[in-house]
Write a structure and sequence with these properties.
This protein is mainly α and 398 residues long. The chain folds into two domains: 249 residues; 139 residues, Arc Repressor Mutant, subunit A. 69% of the residues lie in helices and 0% in strands. The chain has 20 helices and no strands. The chain is elongated, with a radius of gyration of 27 Å. The protein starts with a helix and ends with a helix. 32% of the residues are buried. About 2% of the residues have low confidence. This is AraC family transcriptional regulator. InterPro entries: Homeodomain-like_sf, HTH_AraC. Pfam families: HTH_18. Keywords: DNA-binding, Membrane, Transcription, Transcription regulation, Transmembrane, Transmembrane helix. It comes from Aquirufa ecclesiirivi.
């Protein structure tokens, strides 16, 4: 049973990244964190619970150790970017990768060893568990020292995440009560849970290091003493990705209006001769949503078969996760549905104007931007409740 949990964690991390990267690129750091936690829990499981898979251990052991140093940075950058509504890395973020690079360089000689030697080493560790801490595959330090450094840094990152939440809590309490206010409150609650999990996991890992360091007479032979710690780690690695199912909207982050978006709103108001007023965040995103709809209606980009959210991002200079947020949370309608709605409306206009029957159904489909008959008929039936032919006959009867 326990063996399946790390694999499920790895699978969930990939699913989260694949289905949500277009909504919010910041999700990649959350997915990386989940993936690494799943990987390290699998590593611990194979050493402490199941010694029947030495070939898999020979593949995992040592080869991913440098990546485990990124668990803390990945979680910290995710929390920081979510609170600040930013994507990607900052210029100073390269400092976070230095410990991982240190370990990577020290492991190069181990990487170059043939697989049979690695399999022999793993087999020796399984027979003599103390070797897990005393052997030195890294040229600069033993495994125990490197594990301690990694877990100490993880605790440090957990502390920095707590500080970020404390700093942002006052701002969160004064936000509006609309849709954006709800988004902020739910996401902030999720971040508190996420940081609490990280703090707990980091504390467990560092505690296990202290237990080993202060073992009587440096007796590292009995790993069974640390099984409760690793069992908790494995369970948490499985539970944490599942929490996304309880908080799916957190994948949009905490949207904050950018300077470019404010300028876009004011430009629209000037064109409509509206008075310049101060808008709260919720009103601002409502305005952004209306600007997006106005662009779709006037420019008709949906007639292009390749029309996507990216076109809106580039044309209007609005962050992609803000566009997704406007569709899904402000307009409460996914982008594909709105795109198909405008395309179907265009088809209906062509049908009504085409008194001479110049267009075939296939011609109508292509004119509106559809690329396949199945998607065209399915969209038409979902929106109008009947086929294009039936709808056309109904209009003639009116």
């Amino acid at each position: 049973m326990f063996l399946t949990l790390p694999f499920l964690s790895l699978l969930f991390s990939i699913i989260i990244a694949y289905f949500n990267i277009k909504k919010n690129k910041g999700v990649i750091f959350l997915s990386v964190f989940y993936f690494l936690i799943g990987l390290i829990s699998l590593n611990y499981y194979l050493f402490t619970y199941d010694s029947q898979l030495p070939w898999l251990l020979a593949i995992l052991y040592g080869h991913f150790s440098a990546l485990f140093f990124l668990i803390g940075p990945a979680s910290y950058i995710y929390v920081r970017n979510t609170l600040s509504d930013q994507e990607g890395l900052r210029r100073k973020d390269f400092w976070h990768f230095i410990p991982s690079l240190y370990l990577l360089v020290g492991l190069i000689p181990y990487f170059l060893k043939p697989y049979p030697e690695k399999l022999a080493l793993v087999t020796k560790i399984l027979n003599q568990p103390g070797e897990l801490y005393t052997n030195q595959i890294h040229i600069f330090a033993s495994n125990l020292v490197n594990d301690f450094i990694r877990n100490f840094l993880y605790v440090y990152y957990a502390w920095m995440m707590i500080m970020l939440l404390i700093k942002s809590s006052e701002t969160n309490e004064t936000e509006s009560i609309g849709s954006s206010g709800m988004q902020r409150r739910v996401t902030f609650q999720w971040l508190n849970i996420f940081v609490a999990f990280n703090t707990f996991i980091a504390s467990i890992l560092l505690s296990s290091n202290f237990i080993v360091l202060f073992s009587p007479e440096n007796d590292f032979s009995n790993l069974n003493e640390y099984l409760p710690y690793y069992r908790i780690l494995i369970m948490l690695a499985f539970i944490m990705p599942l929490l996304i199912l309880l908080f799916p909207r957190v994948l949009y982050g905490i949207p904050q209006i950018t300077v470019e978006e404010l300028e876009l709103i004011q430009t629209k108001k000037k064109k409509s001769n509206s008075e310049k007023t101060e808008l709260d965040v919720d009103d601002s995103f409502y305005e952004i949503a209306q600007i997006i709809l106005n662009y779709i209606e006037t420019e008709k980009p949906y007639l292009n078969p390749r029309f996507s959210i990216r076109d809106i991002v580039v044309t209007l200079n609005i962050p992609q996760h803000h566009v997704s947020y406007c569709f899904n949370k402000i307009l409460n309608t996914p982008f594909p549905t709105i795109k198909n709605k405008y395309r179907i409306e265009y088809v209906k206009e062509l049908i009504l104007k085409d008194t001479e029957k110049r267009y075939s159904l296939e011609g109508l489909m292509k004119e509106a931007g559809f690329t396949s008959k199945n998607s065209f008929f399915q969209a038409f039936k979902e929106i109008e409740g009947c086929t294009p032919k039936v709808w056309s006959e109904q209009q003639k009867a009116i």
